[in-house]
Amino acid sequence: MIFTVAIDGPAAAGKGTIGRRVAAAFGFAHLDTGLLYRAVGAKGGDPVAAARGLGAADLARDDLRTLEAGQAASRVAAIPGVRAALVDFQRRFARAEGGAVLDGRDIGTVICPEAEVKLYVTASAEVRARRRWQELGGEAGAKPLAAVLAEVRDRDARDMGRADAPLRAAADALVIDTSDLTIEAAVAVALAAVRAKFTP
Ligand code: DC
Asked: Fewest beta carbons within 10 Å, which of 33, 109, 181, 194?
């Protein structure tokens, strides 16, 4: 059984949570493709060589989830040679036997346009920045909300504005705006969308 759920959207919209929950509910494999770009950015040196040589140890680093790693990922993700080096791995994962959920920026548009379900998970920049800021400790954390919002906007502009595989919703994607939804409500919308297309 080949079945792909493609989840795209900007940073901190809830893609990861929704992706993990959908994968667990249907027993599908899950790939957070942002982690690939984060690992390339963190590796340093020539980004194209880093993408070509990416291995399990690179993905297991414990410093890939920081805001800085996200910015570095967004920068290397604009390099066509980096994207090209990561395409085959993602396509194979998407169409492997047993079902797969991939979340990222170009899954429904470039990596797997044939995905059976496409979701575009979004939220306002203010809401997304507040979520990230709270994850970083809120008032007690090291960064003011305004700085996190500036980084969110900066990353959106780069991810949506790049020439190669820019972030956008596929024409046939279901848009889920999580600005005013609880996690449970957003997950329920995603699960219903998959259930409507998937017959075990
Ligand atoms: O989802 P994330 O925040 O971990 O992604 C980090 C960066 O990687 C994101 O700003 C852009 C890039 N990325 C991409 O270009 N394509 C993907 N499929 C996933 C991530």
From this structure: 181
